[in-house]
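Handout, page 2. Input:
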Amino acid sequence: MSVYKELKRVVFATGMMLPEMVAANEVSPGDTAWLLTATALVLFMTLPGLALFYGGLVRNRNVLSVLMQCFSITCVVSVVWLVFGYSLAFGDGGGLQAMIGGLGKAFLTGVNVDSVSGTIPETVFVMFQLTFAIITPALIVGGFAERMRFSAMLWFSLLWLVLVYLPICHWVWGGGWLSSLGLMDFAGGTVVHINAGVAALVTAVVMGSRRGFPTTAMPPHNMTMSVTGAAMLWVGWFGFNAGSAVAADGSAGMAMLVTHIGAASGSLAWMFSEWIRFGKPSVLGIVTGMVAGLGTITPASGFVGPVGALCIGIVAGVACFWATQYIKRVLQIDDSLDVFPVHGVGGCIGTLLTGVFAAASLGGLGLPDGAGISGQVLIQLVGVLTTIVWCGVLTYLILKVVDATVTLRVTDEEEQQGLDIVLHDERGYDL
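Output:
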């Protein structure tokens, strides 16, 4: 059996494809304990990691609004996941299996203490995948920070989860057509990062810039908060990537190792790029480079070796730095917290480079039988382009519908006053 076939068998058996019910006595205590830990780590990435990272990057009059958005998205997605989200992403879609799952597991019907997915309880798999569904729309918050109404944010996040996230998640991880095509996306290059990045870019364009952008400086109000959140993201990402092995084994160990290397090399590459460009390295730059490195290594984390991770991280740091400069300075698009240049561009690069550095000759776990690097990169490109088009078109339509019903954006006067007071009647700081 080839290395790639063995890998596919392990990934399928451990649940990243359509969960397979097996006998309860096949549950692995070690795998279960690791996935329980990984699940907590991924949720920790959103609350408090992403909330603090984003919260520190906005101006002080909007800090609570960002924390509220991340918290409320967590709650809304959790309920939707119970009602029908999990079923549509990972359920049996019958004749529509290539496109979407069915409703056989709506309200988690049939999921009980004896249900098993691979070598872990299905309840753990449900919760692990829920944390991915939570953080993806939460990442989009950075694209519209400081100017979207709270009610509009709730409706947008709900509709986006249903119409964008769930189908793409099913295509890639739930036994849909992209997984059948052979797309290699271990932990979310397409499902999470390209998805969130494209949605943030479309949202920023549709909503328009914040008042004063790009002539008025809008520096982060609390870099200490942001660095703390970034550090939490780094730690939580081990659950994100290594947990996607859905087993406590060598694959998880390698995924953790390459994740760390990708983060470190991405940080340094961004730092030196900024140092050369502006004469000084910044704290914001090094932590943003870390996020870029992590997002870019994500799809490759289960398929590449340490040297491949080093190369991917370096490319991520440099490319995402220059993408940020181009989006903000040349195109003058107010993607407030750089979601697209970091996650969108990083996700595209990582997904494509997975088809390169997964090759055994380059230290990876191997490519599918008969698929050379060029053939696999072509498959990866199909996955990237499909995600961009589906997400871009549906996000645009969702924004237009929400704007026509509840209005997307606060008024200029409300934006000047700050969303904390206007939308929540509270202040983040009252000194």
